[in-house]
Task: structure prediction
Amino acid sequence: MYVLVIDDERNVRDFVAEVLAGEGWEVTTADSAEEAFRLLPLKPWALVCCDVMLGGADGFAVLRRFKEEQPDAQIILMTGQGSAVGALDAAAFGAYDYLLKPFGVEELASLSRAVRELFESERRKRHRVVSSPKGTGLFATQLELVGRSRAFIEVMKQVGRVAATSLPVLLTGETGTGKEVIASAIHMRSPRADKPFVAVNCGAIPEELIESELFGHVRGAFTGAERDRKGLWEEADGGTLFLDEITETTPAFQVKLLRALQEGELRRVGSNHTISVDVRIVAASNRDVEEEVKAGRFRQDLFYRLSADTIYLPPLRERREDIYPLASAFAERVWSLNPTVSFSTGALRLLEAYDYPGNIRELENAVVRAVALCNGVVRPEDLPARIRDFKPGAARGEAERAAEAGATAVASSGGAREGAAQQQEGWLTLAEVEARYVARVLAHTRGNKQAAARLLGVDRKTIERMIKRHELDARGAKGEGADKGGAGGDGAARAVSDAV
Result:
């Protein structure tokens, strides 16, 4: 079986090729999308492993082209700069997986075995390419799908896979984890994107009105019903209906909801006539729905009908890597006239240590308040008291938090203002913070200076000057004091580093 490995970094290309050859694949390599397009018609490719960031056309262009001309090929996109939108695009356009660098031998080998099993068992499901008429950039802006943690990227991969179907989806997770945003993402990436998306908070509608609100009513159905009225279910015809807080509905209403789902039709309150409606349902709850079923508060048959696919949204404390990107996005949106607003080291330390029982919604409110009070740099005193006074139980060490917060501050504001703040608060000097952060980025990119420069927002000459100034090697090491806990310090990183 043939595999094509595409990466403009030779060490990564050779590493992936060696692992796959060891798994029994017949491997061909390419260093650009253009070379891959030339090789495309020459063999029936079973697997294509492609870097997202290539010199010319990117990995998504490769993905679309291969899916159009060889739809049986399974595509694995590899990236050192994972993002939620990237994971969503990869799944929506039919990628088999979205693999985050650095990765180890076993992770890659396991994926290749899974692809081989799909072919050998003849049970592989084809992934249909779903094109977006409005463009992925607009979706990213509208939906604010901000995050690069592995947990959130896994959510985006699920969203991308389920979006192309018409299956009902059940979203679970704590309050404030962004269930409506994810429901919107499912709709916007689906074939129903040009039809209505209607969101209903079932817990906010009085019990005696919810049937009329959802299904509509006819004139005279009850006191005050002076004319026929469409329900929200009909308003969503052809599109998606998002039923938030679905577990707040009564068992009596759940029976009617189940019938509408099963039959694809509804009956307005006071009417004897049924109306056919084509609606895709996305439901959500901040409760454990299975526990609600066991307690008799939610119908089991309705649960099974709604949960053809279930997506769990992790709380913010389980995706702390996303706190700073989210905070920055909220700050820039609020202070649109001055997008250079930044966070002091102390403020970042507090934001990243807090547990956020209200999740993303609580973080947004805290940032909005802080930006309104600050003078261009958010400091600890600008944050709510509950965040300032929070004492984490099993917190990370002070030094580790300081390094992480300081590194993030340098990345956000370019470092000039943050250096003074770090010294004032007794943290690292600006030079030390820059050295550590550059070392982490180099470890993360496994010595790829161009990728490191892109990540830092500087040109290649600047990154080379930084390496020389701080006496770092290409991988970010500096004698015995090399950063061992950075982005490339886990087992998978070491496996890749050792191999390449």
Summary: The domain at 2-137 is CATH 3.40.50.2300 (Rossmann fold). Residues 122-143, 394-426, 479-500 have pLDDT under 50 and may be disordered.
